[in-house]
Amino acid sequence: MSHLSVNHLLGIKSLTKNDIELILSTAQNFKEVINRPIKKVPSLRDITIANLFFENSTRTRLSFELAQKRLSADTINFSASNSSVKKGETLIDTVNNILAMKVDMIVMRHASAGAAVFLSKKVNAKIINAGDGAHEHPTQALLDAFSIQERLGDLKGKKIVIVGDILHSRVALSNIFCLQKLGAIVKVCGPLTLIPKHIASLGVEVELDLKKALEWCDVANMLRIQLERQDIKYFPTLREYSMLYGLDKELLDSLSKKIIIMHPGPINRGVEITSDVADSKQSIILDQVENGVAVRMAVMFLLAGRQG
Amino acid sequence: MQPKILLEKNQFDVKIKRLCHQLIEAHNDFSETVIIGLQPRGIFLAKRIQKELQSILKNKDIKCGALDITFHRDDFRKKELIPNPTNIDFTIEDKNVVLVDDVLFTGRTIRAGLDAMLAFGRPQDVELLVLVDRRLARHVPIQAKYVGITIDSIETQNVKVEWMETDGKDKITLFDK
Predict the structure, then answer these.
(1) Which residues of B touch A68 (CB under 8 A)?
(2) How far apart are CA A80 and CA A181, in angstroms?
(3) pTM metric for this prediction
(4) Who is most buried in A71, A206, A290, B118, counting CB within 10 A?
(5) Across the interface, do A37 and B120 touch by the CB < 8 Å criterion?
């Protein structure tokens, strides 16, 4: 367990269990660092990182940026909305122009699945996937695993249900890979129209009844309904979705045990979870945000340390 | 060269007791002094010294922390490094700090330690205590104030310090890499 087996973080699928455990244990050290009076360490002071966000993001971008600052890296930020991408520049051209300015590492979010893998084959820099379409969002899965581990200890045998829009969710796919590699049992729950057809091939069971799913699990990860990715109607109305798959305090309190509630954000309050659930003691949503910085520091620290 | 045993068993204890008495001479009752062991191997010595001081001074309140310097090293990216936990649950602001490590060689670890320590406050005074001083091998101008043993060695040699707590015996060996 002494080093990563990969040079880029493109997805959880390409990581080994050892890689995940190494990242999580390193993140533990960084969590201690970001709770010190002086929260900065000089590890990456000679590294320049470009944050390329071809898609909107608040949490992930801020979290990466803060993690980079805490590691003393130099950063440049790029968002597609006010760039030459609008003028018709290709991804490779944009990235090569940025790399010509001597950038060592790229954090990229892109609307197309596989964009990070594509880039890793074409350019000479370490690539971190910060979300590619509906494919993977590896750092989110790592911080989710870290947050669950913090509450429940070893993930082996723990039951986790992912609720909501599984079809459009990169968080769901990365979470499934990550949690399974750590030995957890994963179910998904949501309207059939939002469950991918071949999900069973990942060893994941489908539960259509939210109450049954919640009774079964130790942790419920409530995903956001991604209306921006839904070009057709997958369910009649948000109100109906919320009635069948939304989690409110009454339902939470009716369960026979206290489960942990997670949400990758941003929350549609009143749709997938109500405010009183999001702000309840069982919710670890803000812990997830804090842990996100530590986990991203760990990923960048370990990748920067890789030779070649 | 055959591995050479530099110190073991009782001699080991004697050195630690002597270091403790030297510390007491300079720091009295340790009310204004804290001990910080450097991860990974310095913490065993730090804990041993804390225990010994507690028994000599009949004072249980001697603060001892563990400091990891991985994020402050100057050879990061020359090799892959895995961090260890830092655990300092007290402030070092205006305190006298005794930094503790098992072996002083190039001095680079201590340099990183001085850097890392500043995240926990501005100490009044910092001293260095080591069990083994490999003299004439320094890359940076750093010197220990309290030394268990001083040895002459060359760069192709290694010093290994074993601890009862983890290795089942107290022993210091010099051997070829």
Answers:
(1) none
(2) 34
(3) 0.89
(4) A71
(5) yes
